[in-house]
Amino acid sequence: MGRISQRIAAVTESATLAIDAKAKALKASGEDVIGFGAGEPDFPTPGHIVDAAVAACLDPKNHKYTPAGGLPELKAAVAAKTKRDSGFEVSASQVLITNGGKQAVEEAFAALLDPGDEVLMPAPYWTTYPESIRLAGGVPVEVPTSWQSGFKVTVEQLESARTARTKVLLFVSPSNPTGAVYSPEEVERIGRWALDSGVWVLTDEIYEHLVYGDSVFASMPVAVPGLADTCVVVNGVAKTYAMTGWRVGWIVGPPDVVAAATNLQSHATSNVCNIAQRAALAAVSGDLSAVEEMRAVYDRRRRTITAMLNEIPGVTCPEPEGAFYAFPSVEGLLGMPIAGRIASSSLELAALVLDEAKVAFVPGEAFGAPGYARFSYALADSALEEGISRIAKLVAG
Tell me: the pLDDT tens digits for 175-198? Predict the structure, then answer.
């Protein structure tokens, strides 16, 4: 008998958090490291949200247990925000407040999957998705995409990957790590395929407000209303409102799925921190002016980083349409001498660049996409330009 259960021992560390931790450790030791690793807004949480949290700390009613599924007023506000922002009309009883988006993803899969159920998972994918699927007893089935296809999966690919064990399609737009955004027509086409095929959809909409240019966010249960009874939406305040540390996310879905996930949460964590919930209430109930200001800055940075990466010989970077990540192909750098070393994979290249240029990025292997790299542009313009310039100089020799 092993000391650690096989189920938990099989879980891999979050690559994005590991890279971020290494970069921060090097900084703490005095190294001048520029980190493109973590998907974390560099803006402070808007002041009115912080003020709501301060007031909540002083109110004794927030010092006690509250319903495991979330504060009733926050659930109602999330339902109202969902209708406002995506057009998806749900009741407060269809909302579960979770400890961040990660818990929302994990509990949604736990509520939906039985051992052996398959989940179609377009790749590249966020590192947490396959781990959450496996922890729920499910089987992640990768459906590959590439920069040539805009990192978008087609109905034909999904149908080819579907088997008798397929239960769920994981759908993410805008995408982490690629920044791809499906058009409303593409969302509808995929949603109709799922409905006609009897496949559930778990759609992660946490980057819904971070779209650029002519791209438009579209919510699948709005594009295909018939999916409402077999679709679960996960979301949260982390990216939109620069609240990663506050740990508030949610599930929106059919009443039986939300009730099951709420029962699970009642035994796992009980209620989310009341102070954080009060802050989230101020966030989702307010206007989106602060969000628009942040989005405009990300838009500028996305164009800067794309142009700079494409100037590096051996790097090909499509312009991201959403989120705050650039996802270039670095295959042209593999196998060539850089600072007297040769990297044969994007994993080795990331280690080389961190050692030689003191720049941290996440290798594509973390997202099921060897030969690629993820650069978060949620950092100061000066740091962004300095970091990419260091890589360019390193490659140029």
Answer: 999 999 999 999 999 999 999 999
